[in-house]
Known about the structure:
Helices cover 82% and strands 0% of the residues. It has 546 residues and is mainly α. The protein folds into two domains: 4-318, no CATH class; 334-545, Methane Monooxygenase Hydroxylase, Chain G, domain 1.
Amino acid sequence: MNYVNIIIPFVGGLGMFIYGMQIMAQGLENAAGNRMKTLLEVLTKNKLMGVLLGAAITAVIQSSSATTVMVVGFVNAGIMNLTQAMGVIMGANVGTTVTGWLVSSVEWAKFLSPSTLAPIAVMLGVIIMLTGKRRSAKEISSIVVGFGLLFIGITTMSAAVEPLKDVPAFCNLFVTLGHNPLLGILTGAVVTGIIQSSSASVGILQSLAAAGLIPFRAAIYIIMGQNIGTCVTAIMSSLGAKKNAKTAALMHLLFNVIGTVIFSVIAIVYFELINTAAGLGNITQTQISTVHTIFNIGTTVLLFPASNWIVKLAKKIGRVDEAEQDRGVVLLDDRILQTPGIALQSTIKELIRMGEIVKESLEVARTVLFTLKEEDIQFLKDEESTVDNLSAGITEYAIKLSSLQISEKEHQEVSHILQLVSDIERISDYCENISEFAETLYEKKVSFSEVGKEQLQGMLDICIDSYEYALESYEKQSKEIALKVIEKETQADDMEITLRSKHIKRLANNQCNTEAGIVFLDTLVCLERISDHARNIAEEVLEKQQ
């Protein structure tokens, strides 16, 4: 037998299967678009919502490994704790069963015969790609073409291995795997670990099953091993990450190993003691999908009540103590870039967090010029350093995001983020300037006149309100609130001119201290510029709304 004629078509079919799966997943992800952005909000909910989230994301991106890598990234960035991560990991195992059912549909839905449907799907996808003008058409074409290529790949693999059913040694190999559970599990784990995709590994198994090569028993143990092998990607991704991120990868491994042990024991007891004649016949593609689904859903249902125990065990093994996150650490991780829609939402959330820190600084700046408290002066300086770190980190991450294959709308969103980071960082700079003005007043032991204090307080209130409205308008994407910012900024401009004129007259009449007077005028400039940057933020919101 010429094995070259078997191996080359099989490898080519596998490549076509994986490529089809990837472009179909990319099309689904792009089509999901903004809907995927809202998934992050679910992370604050209970663990059951995390399971549903994990299943949904995996069903879209067609890879539990990729989902778990994202989870490692979330944990490493500090935007997800280990308990939330556990829920998503459990859901990822459920979501990965979708590909198997898609492949096995050729058996339970005869009209989906690859020999007729796959070429039609590819041709239809190409027609949509060439004729469609809108981006949605391109996304649909990716889904349809990927669907067709996936089926062509599985058909090519099945046809390539068809002659092997007449080779006794090859058939006996799988019979041996069926009678040796450890060897079967090890085979599934190694193959999946090498190609780093349980969906592709299940696809290979289904192609062999289509050729009538896989005994039922062997398939069960191989499927269980595949769930262990899929942990390799997340473990490799966690190398070099923080301890809690490594613990997330360890939780994935523990969850799958415990599930495999439980179901392997059940299978061994049934096949070896209860019904020794069972599982000797060959398995079909649909039966593989059924076993894969029962195993993953069963493991999730069985271990869900014990999930907190698994988290504690993983933390104990990894020697992790989830400490409070440093405010200056950028809560973004490159692993999340695998799913640009979620990465974009994470960037927006981090931008808003940076904005909230500046909001706190402005509240201190509201009074520091009058109280001259040393701790407040130092607080503003420390917060400026924190904001500088966040600004640099968010900017770098946004640039990486813009280099990915994202939609035009998402590119515009990234541009908005870069502009807003600059505006918010400049406002933080002005807060530091105000702290320096307060330090000058403290060191020279001078203060504003009562009239000066009253006027400056009014200016402070208007300019700080304008920023708070601006941040709120961006967070809520509210045109109405953004218009309030424009109104406040106009008031600030008028007030700055009026107060400057009045103050210069007081200085000319020796009605206030000269050194305090200079600080007064410099503060007016800072506050007016704060309102300018707040207006910039509001205008970004208004432009986006249009």
